[in-house]
Amino acid sequence: AALPGETAQGSPLRSVAELSARRLATGDLVAAAKWGTGSPVDDPARERRVLDSAAERAGELGADPRLTRLVFRDQIEANKAVQRGLHRLWRDHPSEAPTEHPRLDDVRKDVDRLNEALVRAVADSAPYRRAAPLCRVALAVSAGRVSRERSLDELHSTALAGSLKSVCGSRRQHAG
Ligand SMILES: O=C(O)C(=O)C[C@]1(C(=O)O)C=C[C@@H](O)C=C1
After folding, report:
1. Centroid of ligand 1 to alpha carbon of 134 (angstroms)
2. Mutation choice for ligand 1 from 46, 69, 101, 116, CB with most ligand atoms inside 8 A
3. Does any domain span residue 141?
4. Residue nearest to atom 7 of ligand 1 (CA)
5. Tens digit of each residue's pLDDT (9 = 90 or more) over 104-134
6. How far apart (Å, rounded) are the C-alpha atoms in residues 164 and 172?
7. Which range of residues forms the domain containing residue 164?
8. Chorismate mutase domain: which residues (predicted)?
9. What is the average per-residue pLDDT within 69-80?
10. Predicted ipTM?
């Protein structure tokens, strides 16, 4: 039987995995925007804006702001892992470094659109969280498919797995 939110394109978990991969791909552009400019990978003020607006949108949609915030924390950490990995690569192999620098503000507009879609997909995947172990299996399958379809390298597929770790419910919420 189909769960709520299931469509011909697949489950909301599939959408979460796909959108997360697209959000991670922006990490390449952000890394290129910052490369050689002295701008640090970490921008705590921007992170706060991303987290606050994701939580606020979740609330408006009747979804769980706390869980949404955890998911976005993981998304941001994964994005930074990609940026750091690429900066390391470009430092060690300067011939692979980008010669064009996208504008950070432009990339952030794309990130904002992906954030909105991701908040919705996380909200739509709420029914799956009722059975966390099944949710984790289904999500891992989706992430594997997305990795293959997009031919993700090790850096990006590892980051994708990290970006998804709270989607089926945080393990932390059961601790203590
Ligand atoms: O917007 C940036 O500058 C990014 O590096 C992207 C991002 C994010 O994933 O949203 C990641 C790290 C920064 O600390 C802030 C935001």
Report:
1. 31
2. 46
3. yes
4. 76
5. 999 999 999 999 999 999 999 999 999 999 9
6. 14
7. 12-169
8. 1-87
9. 98
10. 0.99
Q: Give residue 176 CA to ligand 1 midpoint distance, Å.
A: 31
User: Residue 41 C-alpha to ligand 1 middle, in angstroms?
Assistant: 7
In a domain, 113, yes or no: yes
List ligand 1's pocket residues with C-beta within 6 A.
Answer: 30, 42-43, 46-47, 50, 75-76, 79-80, 108, 111
List, for residues 49-71, the tens digit of each pLDDT value: 999 999 999 999 999 999 999 99
In a domain, 6, yes or no: no
Q: Is residue 7 part of a domain?
A: no
Burial class (CB in 10 A: 0-12, 13-18, 19+), 126: middle
**pLDDT for 15:** 97
Segment (H or E) for 162: helix 154-163
* CATH for 26: 1.20.59.10
One-character DSSP codes across 28-67: HHHHHHHTTTT--S--HHHHHHHHHHHHHHHHHTTS-HHH
Number of domains forming the structure of the chain: 1
For residue 119, report the distance from its CA to the centre of ligand 1, in Å: 17
Q: What is the DSSP letter of 9?
A: T
| Threshold 0.90, pTM exceeds | yes
- For residue 172, pLDDT over 60 is answered with no
